[in-house]
Each structure stands twice: as structure tokens, then as C-alpha cells.
Amino acid sequence: MNMNRAAAMVFAALALAACGSNNNSNGNGETHATTSSSSGTLTLRTADGAEGTYLTDGSGRALYEWVADGDGKSSCTGACAQAWPPLATNGAPAASGAAHAPDVGTITRSDGVKQVTYRGHPLYYYAGDAGQGDTSGQGSDGFGAKWWLVAPSGTAITKTASSGAPGGGIDG
Questions:
Q1: If 63 and its partner were Cys, which of 83, 90, 118, 123 is the partner (CB 3.0–4.6 Å)?
Q2: Residue 171 resides in a domain
Q3: Residue 168 CA, distance from chain mean position
């Protein structure tokens, strides 16, 4: 490898680490949100909202699970993964606060991306959320099944801020 190429690769790696979060497309119409701190460790946290206490990434972005996923596998690909980008990592994810470290894991998606799970449920962002504290994906029926915020217990929060419906049900 020549010096210019090596320098370009180091610069690219540093630029990605400094960004903290980016969206990557694999060329097959799938978009994956990769989040990591500058140290490379993705840490799940929690936030409190009208729906209750729910999981977030380290920057406070809400994380969701999809009822259509099962058996520790992600069924969200293509257009689904563009609207609901998987929470992906290159390293071992961690947890802090009310998020339980033993419940955090990963699966390998069909495209080879390492997706973060919580109690076996693959985790996703919602592309329509503007940022920290936004939970506009809660209760969506996108792509044929419900999307729910995830409580620190690992259960789906099936309550929406406007409905007042009871929450805490397990989705699968």
C-alpha cells in the first residue's frame, strides 16, 4: 500500500470516529446507522418521556424494536431499513444507567452488518425522529407491523403519548 493511500485511510477513519454517527448505504438500497463514540464503544442509555423510560443511544436518540422481528433476527431490509435504520456497531456495545449490560448483544444481519440487540430484540432508529427526545416513530405500523420504544426491562412500550393506552407488553 502506498503512503498516500495509507494516509487517506487513516484520515477517513479519524473523520468517521469524529462524526459519532453516520448513515451508510451498502449499495443495495439499505441504509445502516452506525453509532459509536470516539473510543469506538456504543453505549445504550435511557431517557424519560411521555411514553415512559425508554432506551436511547449515547446521544439520546430513541431506539425501537419491530414486532415482525423474531428469533434474534432482523427482518427489516431494503426500504424498511431506510426508514428504520438498524443500530449497528463495529465493537462490543455497552450499557449505562437503567439499561442493563447483560441484556445488550449483537446479531449479524443478512448483509453482514453487526446490529445491536437488547434482550434479543434488534434495535433501530426511526428516520423521522429529528434527534434527542423525539419519539415520533412510536406505535407506527410501518412495513406491516408495529414499532415500539423499548423499556429497560426489554419489553415493548405499547403506550403512545397521546393514547394513554397501557404499556409494557412483550412483542415477541
A1: 123
A2: no
A3: 19
